[in-house]
Automatic annotation (TrEMBL):
It holds the Pfam family Metallophos. Residues 53-241 form the Calcineurin-like phosphoesterase domain. InterPro entries: Calcineurin-like_PHP, Metallo-depent_PP-like, STPP_CPPED1, TAT_signal. It comes from Anaeromyxobacter paludicola. This is Serine/threonine protein phosphatase. SUPFAM superfamilies: Metallo-dependent phosphatases (SSF56300). PROSITE patterns: TAT (PS51318).
Length: 329
């Protein structure tokens, strides 16, 4: 698959979508129009745009126990260790939900959330941010998540990029809801149309596969609020597999899970986890490396290379080592 990115696009996928998540590089603005956008954004955020990298991790489901992955948190813990070993420390790590696996046993869900926080706390990065998944917030409307991490929807600016954490799981229906949409509308109002916006959420904000619960009920209304902006990136989890979807100015990227994979809905009739293979324990938890390069027309082309993480038993995120190659960063 090849996918063009307009030359004005600020957020550049520089190499890399890891099986356990994704590492993104944010490049500098280019050209006169880009410089105008940078100045406008700096006035809006008070920060000078500058290149940086960040990592997305998703769906570790801490506390999950079952045949699809009997190794528990090993992939998650390995991912943390490999991120810490990267030669270029990411500025941010974003978690796109299902940090924990819910439990109705008194105290158990809180213990699992605390375990997630303990593992994530080993990350040696300047900042971490998270949104809840339905396994974090479905039983209590997000109360436990808030007690550990604060609000479920919020925003912040980082080196010229506006990040929006958007909760689409803690209501009775799989939706963002009118109150959070109003908040998002107000939050975006101060930015010029050229401002790069990164939204991270749990469920997809488009109808990817509604009969598999891969949708957000009011996703169209959310994307309508983002439609005026020229550079919108949506990062999400939930589907436990990679996916890229483009619509208008927005590109949506799903990260793989840190616990087990779901099959391709285009070729599989049932939504069942891909069976665990002890001979290849991290099959489908591999990485997809994306190389960005110029084409004749001046645009950027993305050429992915699939790499499975089965070279070493229980190696988990061994693919992170690929990032050590100079050509990758």
């Amino acid at each position: 698959m090849r996918d063009r990115i307009d030359r004005r696009t600020f957020l550049r996928i520089a190499g890399l979508s890891l099986g356990a998540g994704a590492l993104y590089r944010v490049g500098a603005f280019a050209g006169a129009e880009g410089q105008d956008a940078a100045r406008a954004l700096g006035r809006a955020t008070g920060e000078a745009p500058a290149p940086f990298t960040f990592v997305q991790l998703s769906d570790p489901h801490v506390g999950f126990s079952g045949p699809p992955n009997p190794t528990g948190t090993q992939a998650f813990e390995r991912a943390v260790a490999e991120i810490n070993a990267l030669p270029q420390r990411p500025d941010l790590v974003l978690f796109t939900g299902d940090l924990s696996h819910e439990s109705e046993k008194p105290g158990e869900h809180a213990a699992r959330m605390a375990r997630f926080r303990e593992i994530a706390g080993r990350l040696r990065v300047p900042a971490m941010h998270a949104v809840p998944g339905e396994h974090d917030a479905g039983l209590d409307g997000g109360a436990l998540f808030r007690s550990f991490f604060g609000e479920t929807s919020y925003s912040f600016d980082h080196k010229g990029v506006h990040f929006v954490a958007l909760d689409n799981v803690s209501r009775a229906k799989p939706e963002v809801g009118p109150e959070r949409r109003d908040w998002l509308r107000r939050d975006l109002a101060r930015f010029p149309r050229t401002a790069p916006i990164v939204v991270f959420t749990h469920r997809p904000l488009f109808d990817l596969r509604p009969d598999w619960e891969w949708f957000t009920r009011d996703g169209d209304q959310v994307m309508a609020l983002l439609e005026p902006f020229e550079n919108v990136t949506v990062l999400y989890g939930h589907i436990h597999r990679e996916d890229v979807h483009r619509a208008g100015h927005a590109t949506h990227y799903a990260a793989r899970s840190l616990i087990f994979a779901f099959p391709d809905p285009a070729t599989t009739p049932e939504k069942k986890p891909i069976p665990f293979d002890p001979a290849r324990p991290f099959r489908n938890l591999g990485l997809r490396r994306l190389d960005a390069r110029r084409e004749g027309g001046g645009g950027l082309a993305i050429a992915p290379t699939e790499v499975e993480l089965t070279l070493r038993k229980l190696s988990g995120t061994e693919g992170f080592a690929q990032l050590l190659r100079p050509s990758s960063l």
